[in-house]
């Protein structure tokens, strides 16, 4: 029972017994029972969980996300964040379960689908299902984004579709470079496609070449 909260039905059963024991012991004074309530909202628990997660305190973060879901079982952000904790702890089956629950709340959601894909990639289980879901996301409105295409490429690689994987990586890199140039021309600021995404695409393309040496290089390479 979270936060020391006593269930009402349980208390109705316990209270008469406690009173009888006290009277039998010759004590007429009934002790004061303090019922603690959780003062935080579900959103506040999530914010606290994010703060713990940023400090690397994954177990504390998990506790806060679980508390948020105890207050609101349909809180999408808490569900995805909890899945991310399990993914980081390599508890892939639990991560997959949370992402699927998040997708029940938001069918076809890009973030939950992407993270579900990585649970499949890391565990080696459910590649086919994850690939089908990711293909649908990338084909939908706003789905052709570098990070999503990179994940799609990795899924295709693990599904033994090297040619299709190479196409996804090539498109991901092209979009990444295009968005970077466009952003720099408009505001001379940070590109919306982070350098780390570009590095990941390069790493995954290198992995593809190691796995499938016969795959031809992309144009311009």
List the helices and strands and how they pair.
Elements: H1 8-24, H2 42-54, H3 58-71, H4 76-88, H5 92-105, H6 110-123, H7 127-139, H8 146-158, H9 162-187, H10 195-211
Helix pairs in contact: 2-3, 2-4, 3-4, 4-5, 4-6, 5-6, 6-7, 6-8, 7-8, 8-9, 8-10, 9-10
Which features does this protein show?
221 residues; mainly alpha; 0% strand; elongated; disordered N terminus
Task: Describe the model.
The chain is elongated, with a radius of gyration of 25 Å. The model is unreliable at 1-23 and 181-191 (pLDDT under 50). The chain has 221 residues and is an all-alpha fold. It contains 10 helices and no strands. The longest helix is centred in the C-terminal third of the chain and has 26 residues, at 162-187.
How would the global form be characterised? Answer: elongated
Indicate the percent of residues in helices.
55-70%
Number of strands: 0
Order of helices and strands: HHHHHHHHHH
């Amino acid at each position: 029972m979270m936060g020391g909260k006593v269930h009402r039905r349980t208390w109705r059963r316990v209270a008469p017994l406690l009173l009888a024991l006290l009277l039998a012991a010759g004590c007429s004074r009934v002790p004061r029972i303090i019922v603690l309530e959780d003062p935080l909202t579900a959103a506040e628990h999530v914010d606290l969980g994010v703060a713990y997660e940023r400090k690397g305190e994954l177990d504390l973060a998990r506790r806060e996300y679980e508390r948020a879901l105890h207050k609101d079982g349909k809180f999408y952000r808490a569900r995805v964040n909890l899945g991310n904790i399990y993914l980081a702890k390599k508890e892939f089956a639990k991560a997959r379960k949370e992402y699927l629950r998040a997708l029940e709340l938001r069918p076809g959601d890009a973030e939950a689908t992407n993270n579900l894909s990585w649970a499949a990639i890391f565990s080696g289980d459910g590649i086919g299902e994850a690939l089908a879901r990711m293909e649908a996301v990338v084909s939908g409105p706003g789905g052709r984004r570098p990070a999503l295409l990179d994940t799609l490429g990795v899924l295709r690689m693990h599904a033994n579709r090297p040619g299709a994987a190479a196409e996804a990586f090539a498109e991901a890199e092209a979009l990444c470079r295009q968005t970077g140039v466009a952003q720099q021309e408009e505001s001379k600021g940070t590109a919306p496609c982070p350098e780390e995404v570009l590095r990941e695409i390069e790493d995954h393309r290198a992995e593809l070449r190691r796995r499938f040496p016969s795959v031809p290089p992309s144009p311009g390479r």
